[in-house]
Design a protein that fits this description.
Elements lengths: L1 H21 L4 H10 L37 H7 L21 E8 L2 E7 L5 E4 L4 E2 L4 E6 L3 E11 L2 E10 L3
Antiparallel strand pairs: 1-2, 2-3, 4-5, 5-6, 6-7
């Protein structure tokens, strides 16, 4: 019997709640939404104009590719006359990169001028004109009180050698 009475009571309570919600419960919210946008007038900036794509044709088919080795052979580098002596016994300072060597002083005995070179491991070496140093077959060309000039032979391509001048300055 309690079940039969409670079911109609539950239905009545549900209907009363539904009608309570449908009455002007949201009128203040609706008024706020309607009034909040009255004075706002937004403006969207126009999209920028796009420049038309200019089509270009690749015309560098005649130029040699930098990714393909140049056609060269050893005979051509011998004709240049520039080539390191690969059969020569390497000197101690040729095992160090030139950037790791420092000129720390110079000395003169009679007419001969020597430079004092400090290697990256801290060892000091006395060098003279004609000695080699650095990993690019650098031969000492001139020594002064403040610098050592050397002539390096570097590879400029496949089996092509060029000479360049490098200088070791006196470290203060």
């Amino acid at each position: 019997m309690i079940r039969t009475i409670s079911l109609p009571v539950l239905i009545m309570v549900f209907l009363i709640m539904m009608t309570a919600c449908s009455q002007d419960g949201y009128s203040d919210l609706e008024a706020f939404v309607n009034s909040s946008g009255k004075d706002l007038y937004g403006q969207v900036d126009p999209l920028p104009e796009f420049k038309a794509y200019k089509h270009a044709t690749y015309q560098a088919f005649d130029i040699t590719s930098p990714f393909v080795p140049r056609k060269s052979n050893q005979a051509q580098s011998i004709i240049n006359g520039i080539q390191p002596d690969l059969n020569r016994r390497k000197e101690t300072l040729e095992s160090y990169p030139l950037e790791s060597l420092l000129m720390v002083g110079s000395l003169q005995q009679e007419a001969r001028v020597f430079a004092i070179i400090k290697a990256s491991d801290g060892t000091l070496h006395r060098v003279k004109k004609g000695d080699y140093l650095g990993q690019n077959y650098g031969k000492i060309d001139h020594i002064s009180e403040s610098e050592v000039k050397l002539l390096e032979i570097v590879q400029d391509g496949v089996n092509e050698w060029v000479e360049r001048i490098s200088v070791l300055m006196l470290k203060d």
